[in-house]
Amino acid sequence: MGVKVVERHGNTFKEKLYLPAIFSGMRSTLKHFTKNLSDASNIPTICYPEEKPTDITPRYRGVHRLTHRKEDDSIACVACFMCATACPANCIEIVATPREDGIDEKMPAIFNIDLLECVFCGYCVEACPCDAIRMDSGIYSVIGELREDFIYNKAKLLSIKGISKEEYSLGK
Amino acid sequence: MNTVLILLPLVLTILFSLATVPILVWMERRIAALIQDRLGPNRCHINGIRLGGIIQSVADMMKLVFKEEFLPSHIKNKFYYLVAPSLAFMSAFLTFMVIPYADNITINEKTYYMQALPTDLGVLWFLAFAGLGVYGIILGGWASHNKYAMLGSMRATAQVIGYEVAMGLSLVSMLITYGTISLNEMVTYQSQSFFIIPAWGIVIQPIATIIFIITAFAETNRAPFDAAEGESEIVAGYHTEYGAMKFGLYFVAEYIAMAASGALIVTIFLGGYQLPYLNTNDLINNFELVLWLIIAFAAVTSIIFFKWMKKHNIFEMPGLDEKKVYATLIIGFTAFAIVVMSYYALGFSEGSSVGVMILQFAIFTVKLFFLHFVFIWVRWTLPRFRYDQTQKLGWNILLPLSLVNIFITAIVVVGVNYGS
Fold first, then answer.
1. Distance (Å) from the C-alpha of residue B179 to the closest C-alpha of chain A?
2. Which residue among A101, B6, B268, B400 has its CA within the 20 to 30 Å range from the CA of A159?
3. Given CB atoms, is B234 within the 8 Å cutoff of chain A?
4. Prediction ipTM score
5. CA B360, CA B262: separation in Å to the nearest integer?
6. What is the crossing angle of helices B244-269 and B206-219, to 10°?
7. Residue A171 pLDDT exceeds 60
8. Where exactly are the transmembrane stretches of this chain (chain B) (predicted)?
9. Are residues A29 and A79 in the same domain?
10. Same structural domain for residues A46 and A102?
11. Number of domains in chain A
């Protein structure tokens, strides 16, 4: 067992005086200030609404979307209520209806997500047995003027497209 | 003319204390941003004019003024609760009244003081009201009936009492050095030269300067001594229960106290309104040369500013073109100033002394804003001291140090006076 003895700092007179350390700290902050004042172009902030972020990872949880079946492009959701049950914020509202076209037994008649309640935890995506709900839309800013604007219904959720990994890195 | 000259220092006091608060808030945010590699406020604008973001702090002030006032129902002593923020505000404001903004001016054989309160007891007035400021804080904390507010105000009070002693003693050593208690005479003393260096307080009394600056930070509850506030341990501190303009008064009081301490540091340690090597008489006698130098200086700084604007003001805003507006304003103002200055220099008999007075206001303002910059710069460099560390520093280090400093100063002064 090697015991590593850590040297204690702060016992010399110079360190106890504090002023040299304070002045060197102030010098380093002043360096930042003068550098940024004389040339603001190197500041790494982005001016958000005009410039979009370019470093969003593919695992980012954006606004939800409902997927379509590969065979006939109909809704993949079978209204099993797994997502609504898993949801800790109770923001998913589903009303099921029998599916008449013979592809499956059930489908949702109403599928609403209240984005003001949603905590974007991603449990619904994990819970879904049919891969019907995903959060890979890449939409990170949800804007509305009324509370109703934030309740996304079935048609809206189906209309959102998922974006590819390349598009993520472009920060679409 | 009489009334103008008598009211001028009062108007300046209001300008330096109240009107600079939005500018100080803006400086705080902008300097903080630049130190931390951010941009800071730059969007808020009135028809395209942003003034570098000052509009945003003006909007903040307006918001505070028009917010709804309400009293928490658990407060029993409503009078004390309401009077506390105004006490803090008033004492901070009154501290400013004794600062000399320029040398005494003699017009038609009548002397006018450029202090809002033309008293010789300036230092005592400052100490009295700087100490009174903490009454607003302790009263607010007590009247809030809130444990966290009470704790915050107790911490502020203990700290202010601890540092008041060291501050007073470091001032005593300055009084011994200058041999006077009048702030104006102190500034006159600092216009001398001491061998080849100007006899500013910071040169002849470096230890007293350091002690005074540290205690001024503590007295105004600025970082790193802002133990009165502590988000992590006492919610917000003494103003937890205050909202809207009652909080606004505390907020403004802190900035005015900072401005007042900065003004006193400038007056006592940084030569006040004086330029090094040039006292008031030199300036008045060579006023035409001074005018030309000012005009050259204004031209050079405007060119530098225009270049900087061209490079950095790149946002396209709807409305007026900011760069053009600033250019017009600066050129117009410079031309106006030149015309007024030359009119005074040529036509008006007391013109040069009035011109020197204006120049001294400008010098004072520049020094004061440098001090504001230092206050903000320190705030974004040093972390907050722990409560026991502030107490230890105040009582165990600064107090003995200032006593030793008085002792040495007294010996040197007596030796110089009686030796020669």
1. 30
2. A101
3. no
4. 0.80
5. 16
6. 170
7. no
8. 6-26, 79-102, 122-140, 161-181, 193-218, 247-269, 289-306, 326-346, 358-378, 398-418
9. no
10. no
11. 2
* pLDDT value at B340 more than 70: yes
Residue A93 sits in the same domain as residue A43: no
In angstroms, the CA B163 to CA B213 distance is 11
Mean pLDDT of B306-315: 79
For chain B, give the mean pLDDT.
Answer: 83
The amino acid at residue A24 is S
Q: In Å, how far are B130, B250, B309, B373, B385 from B136, measured between CA atoms?
A: 11, 9, 43, 26, 23
A169, part of any domain:
no
Kindly list the domain boundaries of chain B, sorted by start residue.
60-277+350-419
| Band of residue B288 on the pLDDT scale cut at 50, 70, 90 | confident
B44 close contact with A: CB closer than 8 A: no
Whether A101 and A134 map to the same domain: the answer is yes
Rounded to an integer, the average pLDDT of B190-201 is: 79
**CATH number of domain containing A139:** 3.30.70.3270
Short-list B259, B256, B329, CA closest to B51: B329
* pLDDT for A85: 93
In this structure, the number of other CB atoms found within 10 A of the CB of residue A56 comes to 18
pLDDT classification of A94: cutoffs 50, 70, 90: very high
CA distance B133 to chain A (A): 28
